[in-house]
Amino acid sequence: MGLKSKIKKILAQKEYLPISHPISAIKEFEGKVVLISGGSGGIGLSIAKSLMESGASVIIAGTNEKKLDKISKDISVDTVIMNYSRPETFKDVIGRVTEKYGHLDIFISSAGVHTENVNFWAMNPEEFDRVMDINLKGVFFACQSVGKYMIDNNIKGSILLISSSRGSEPAWSPYGISKWGLKGLTEGLGQIFIPYGINVNSIAPGSTATGLIGIKDGDSITSEENGMGRLVMPDEVATLAKLLVSDAGKMIDGEVVHIAAGRGTFDIR
């Protein structure tokens, strides 16, 4: 976080209480098996908790074994290593999940990285490839592997990609370009998979109150990035995610749903 942002954070006079965590009284995901890549992060973890509360069997995938072990103990969830820079391992990951649970109904891709040292003129091929390999190439092949499994096993499942409102704004950083790619991929996969009863959508949040942007519990969520004057809360993304992967959301397909107070729609930076 830059000095200017830190000063704004310290001087912020306007505070917002965090959005209340919605808990469904109906176990609408009972019997569903969900794999969430990047599930150890702020948004992915909120989605995981929400789906578990609604009766789903959730497996959280990530690359940091120590972090996954801690989460496994904290919320009693199964975890698996899934590295988006190694697409050749995806089939094995799906096999491990289905061997234990019998099937896989929902795949949520929440893994991603930001661009380091954001400067168009100083960008190097190594950093460009690092971001694109995880944020776009990794997502492409993860969806390919999951899609093949669902089609081969006649599962009318759901695939959800966690993208960003940056995917609808002018892009010159690898991060922004990768999110533009996810927008097209969402529409394309929706077209490919719909004949098999598999719907594909993505959520495009604005800046969200997670550790990825340096926000910790108790920090101010005041923000000048949108007209609402605050950051998006992870639980708000999780509530939308539940709809899109539920039976009630099956007729929503190929859509990029913004949750950004207009960022990326009528408010373009």
UniProtKB/TrEMBL annotation:
Q: Which keywords, in A-to-Z order, does the entry hold? A: Oxidoreductase
Q: Which GO terms describe its biological process?
A: bile acid metabolic process
Q: Name one GO molecular function term.
A: oxidoreductase activity, acting on the CH-OH group of donors, NAD or NADP as acceptor
Show the Gene3D superfamilies listed in the entry.
Answer: NAD(P)-binding Rossmann-like Domain
- PROSITE patterns for the chain: ADH_SHORT (PS00061)
Matching SUPFAM superfamilies: NAD(P)-binding Rossmann-fold domains
Q: Which InterPro entries match?
A: NAD(P)-bd_dom_sf, Sc_DH/Rdtase_CS, SDR_fam
Q: Which domain of life is it from?
A: Bacteria
UniProt cross-references to Pfam families, sorted A to Z = adh_short (PF00106)
Per the similarity annotation, which family is this? Belongs to the short-chain dehydrogenases/reductases (SDR) family.
Q: What is this protein called?
A: SDR family NAD(P)-dependent oxidoreductase
Organism of this sequence: Agathobacter rectalis
